[in-house]
Design goal:
- This protein is of the alpha+beta class.
- The chain folds into 3 domains: 8-181, 2-Layer Sandwich (Formiminotransferase-cyclodeaminase, Chain B, domain 1), CATH 3.30.990; 186-347, Formiminotransferase, C-terminal subdomain (Alpha-Beta Plaits), CATH 3.30.70; 355-559, Four Helix Bundle (Hemerythrin (Met), subunit A) (Up-down Bundle).
- Helices cover 50% and strands 14% of the residues.
- It has helices spanning 21-32, 59-76, 105-121, 141-145, 152-155, 197-207, 266-279, 295-308, 317-328, 338-341, 343-347, 360-368, 376-399, 408-443, 450-491, 497-521, 532-559; strands at 8-11, 14-15, 37-45, 50-57, 92-101, 126-130, 177-181, 186-192, 212-213, 231-232, 239-246, 251-258, 284-290.
- Strands 1, 2, 3, 4, 5, 6 and 7 form a 7-stranded mixed β-sheet that branches. A 4-stranded antiparallel β-sheet has the order 11-12-8-13.
- The chain is globular and about 80 Å long.
- 45% of the residues are buried.
Length: 561
């Protein structure tokens, strides 16, 4: 089974209680009990008598937390007493799972089904919707919820509306729950230099998928043979939009729900709004994100706006986010803090101490201390990161070298590849130390009984193999960094050829240093089926690094003759 420990999904359950904070707190307490999830938002509404909760984490932890919350809601909410403006059919009305990073929609669907099965076993009827739907007519939440709680007792016994999980009979207290997998919804407002809601609506109708009702030359709505109005679709798929006036800011906005950023990226929505506003004599002055946004949406926007300028996209993640914020005008109405608005950043554990977050001085002194970690593996990875960084630097300098305008994209691609190498090397700096610590932890396991001894031996072996795999991976990435540096020495900005040479030498040090780590960690496992191929491949990489060092050396020295 695939490892989902680094994957992130979002869960946004809607509970049919928005007034009694004691009841709401009992439900959210269940979520916070689960390790591996983080509660991000609790939004109760009195008029709707409904609370929308948002939490994120790795998929296994999220479905555990969702199961606990749904079960608790069935205990503390009695649907026989519930009244509210919002349509609903259960104590937990709907519970969508949304893939954020490191997981596909298809995989998220399987987690939604697993959650549905567990909730059904608790005696709550469950319907699957959106991507997890068992039939096309069940994809739409509104269709499933039609008739609401009051009509559920008659609906649930119909064969076509039998629940996907749980009993096909009316649960008067808990009602029924709709569980599914859907795309991330981005709530996004575009600011206009007008106070006219009508004009803002005109732009909204231009860009939204639904479009507007077709009218004839006299302004009358055109109807089809069935007597229904004919709609002219708008420009963008998976976009819902309306115009409104915000008194607080004194401007009109286009209020947008983007339901699939993979089909229609955030930056495409913004640019389309800009174009249509200009056609109608208005100007977009900025925009506003409501709630959280996936990091990928801002990274793609940053790359898009750099490419429009014919600039290299091979810059740091922070720089891509900064470019996105400025280009989209996300800071027009107030400060935009990516640490608070980007979902992946909200998940970071501020208490986790990382080597890569240290100052150079602190890292050097930490290495020099009497602690055995960080050691040669982490230092080698650091050398590799610097080598990749120098190769990337030369690519970026080459991409906007005067007179080389026609080659900007060529070098931009090299720089983007270099950023990927840098990112992985930075991960390997800490992971090498983590792998060493895992070995030490395994050695500290109890060994009083034969069973404990066997478990301890197995844990030591597993940790040792991982401590071989990490420096081996560093060797692979460092060899790629050498290739990048050599290419930049050969065809990059000639004023930076020595920098490319230094980059190749740094990457070569990473290969050689981690070759030593692989060898020493594998001393007692040379014939192990997982280790032997790594040792054989390490010899090949080590020899290749020697050859590439000479190649880099000759390119650089020949340029200086």
């Amino acid at each position: 089974m695939r490892d989902f420990s680094n994957a992130i999904i979002e869960c946004v359950p809607n509970f049919s209680e928005g007034c009694d904070m004691n009841v709401i707190r009992q439900i959210t307490d269940e979520i916070e009990k689960v390790e591996g999830v983080r509660l991000l938002d609790v939004d109760p509404g009195k008029a709707t008598n409904r609370t929308v909760v948002t939490f994120v984490g790795n998929p296994h932890a999220v479905i555990e937390a969702a199961h606990k919350a749904i079960t608790k809601a069935a205990e503390v909410i009695d649907m026989r007493q519930h009244k509210g403006e919002h349509p609903r059919m259960g104590a937990t009305d709907v519970c969508p799972l949304i893939p954020i990073s490191g997981i596909t929609m298809e995989e998220t669907v399987e987690f939604a089904k697993e959650l549905g099965r567990r909730v059904g076993e608790a005696g709550i009827p469950v319907y699957l919707y959106e991507y997890a739907a068992s039939a096309d007519y069940r994809r739409n939440l509104a269709d499933i919820r039609s008739g609401e709680y009051e009509g559920l007792s008659a609906k649930i016994v119909k064969p076509e509306w039998a629940p996907d999980y749980g009993p096909a009979k009316f649960n008067a207290v808990a009602g029924a729950t709709v569980i599914g997998a859907r795309d991330f919804l981005i709530a996004y407002n575009v600011n206009l230099n007008t106070t006219s809601t009508r004009r803002a609506n005109a732009v909204a109708f231009d860009i939204r998928e639904k479009g507007r009702q077709k009218k004839d030359e006299n302004g009358k709505i055109v109807k089809g043979a069935d007597g229904e109005a004919i709609w002219e679709p708008g420009l963008l798929k998976n976009v819902k939009a309306i115009g409104w006036f915000i008194e607080e800011y004194g401007i009109a906005q286009i209020s947008i729900n983007l339901t699939n950023m993979n089909t229609t990226p955030l930056h495409v929505v913004f640019d389309s709004a800009c174009q249509q506003a200009q056609v109608r004599g208005m100007r977009v002055t900025g925009s506003e994100l409501v709630g959280l946004v996936p990091l990928q949406a801002l990274l793609e926007a940053g790359k898009y706006f750099l490419e429009k300028q014919q600039r290299s996209i091979g810059v740091s993640e922070d720089e891509l986010v900064r470019i996105a914020v400025k280009s989209l005008g996300l800071d027009e109405l107030g400060p935009f803090d990516p640490q608070k608005k980007v979902i992946e950043y909200r998940l970071r554990d501020a208490n986790t101490k990382k080597l890569v977050d240290m100052t150079v001085t602190r890292f050097v002194q930490e290495t020099a201390s009497e602690s055995p970690a960080p050691g040669g593996g982490s230092v080698s990875a650091m050398c590799g990161a610097l080598g990749a960084a120098l190769g990337t630097m030369v690519a970026n300098l080459s991409s906007h070298k005067k007179g080389w305008d026609s080659r900007w994209q060529e070098f931009s691609e090299h720089a983007a590849a270099g950023q990927k190498l840098i990112k992985e090397m930075l991960y390997l700096i800490d992971e090498d130390t983590n792998s060493f610590n895992a070995i030490m932890a395994a050695f500290g396991l109890p060994k009083a009984t034969d069973a404990e001894k066997a478990a301890r031996k197995a844990a030591i072996e597993k940790a040792t193999i991982y401590a071989i795999q990490i420096p081996f991976r560093t060797m692979e990435v460092a060899l790629d960094a050498m290739d990048l540096a050599i290419q930049m020495a050969a065809k990059g900005n000639p004023n930076s050829i020595s920098d490319a040479g230094v980059g190749a030498l740094c990457a070569r040090t990473a290969v050689k240093g981690c070759y030593l780590n692989v060898r020493i960690n594998a001393q007692d496992l040379k014939e192990h089926p997982e280790v032997k191929p790594l040792l054989e491949r390490a010899e090949v990489i080590n020899a290749a690094a020697d050859a590439k060092e000479q190649e880099a050396w000759q390119i650089v020295l020949n340029s200086m003759k």
